[in-house]
Amino acid sequence: MSQQQWTAVDDYFSQVLIGPDEALDGALAAADAAGLPQINVAPNQGKLLQLLAVTRGARRILEIGTLGGYSTIWLGRALPADGSLVTLELDPAHARVAEANLERAGLGGRTEVLVGKAADSLARLAEQGVEPFDFVFVDADKPSNPDYFEWALRLTRPGALIVVDNVVRGGAVADAGSTDAAVLGVRRMHELIAAEPRVSATSVQTVGTKGYDGFTLIRVER
Fold first, then answer.
1. Scanning 18, 93, 103, 134, which has its CA 20 to 30 A from the CA of 1?
2. What is the DSSP letter of 140?
3. In sequence order, what are the beta bridge partners of 86?
4. Cα 2 from Cα 145, distance rounded (Å)
């Protein structure tokens, strides 16, 4: 199948199962207007994140990599009335777009955008002794994925789910000789996962509007 066919199938499922959404469509438009890169998750992928978080019964969600807040809206909609979401964004301009999008989506009161290096924000959360998270979505710089996995494990409770996006890298993840920093980060993260007795995980390949990629799903067992 071609990229055109993958996109057509994604579009079909998104139209039939999701349809127009003022807040989500507006978030994408605002991100485009601000010149943000078009690397947000696809609508059907966003819905998958929401369903996973709802199924988990997540009351506390952590997102590493906000961009314009598109996936943040999907995840924020999974929260119960007393739930909260913390999302980490390096770029202040991106964070401002995301905050405005979250406000328009009615999620401003339950979401917090922390601006700065994710590693620094994660260290501060640990130092503050925040309540453990039930669900973590990692979609940031891939060379840092090993660190993000270790922080996510530290900041979650047993039974939590961790989802890491963009792990297939167009198939390059299988290349043991790769020198690409993103591929090396993803491979190292999987090595850490495999050696970690406190988690159970699998990785899934996907095709669609975002091309050939995939995600890793991790459950914190204890």
1. 18
2. S
3. 62, 112
4. 29
Beta strand pairing status for 133-138 and 84-89?
A: unpaired
Cut 0.85: pTM above it:
yes
Tokens of 119: 């590693």
Q: Tell me: the pLDDT tens digits for 48-84?
A: 999 999 999 999 999 999 999 999 999 999 999 999 9
- For 209, the token pair is 């509007």
Residue 111 gets the label, from left (phi > 0), alpha (psi -120 to 50) or beta, of beta
User: Beta strand pairing status for 211-220 and 156-165?
Assistant: antiparallel
Q: Which residue has the tokens 């924000």?
A: 121
Query: 55: burial class by Cβ within 10 Å (0-12, 13-18, 19+)?
Result: exposed
pLDDT digit string, tens, across residues 76-101: 999 999 999 999 999 999 999 999 99
Where does residue 137 fall: left (phi above 0), alpha (psi -120 to 50 degrees), or beta otherwise? beta
Half-sphere exposure of 219 (CA within 13 A, CB side): 8
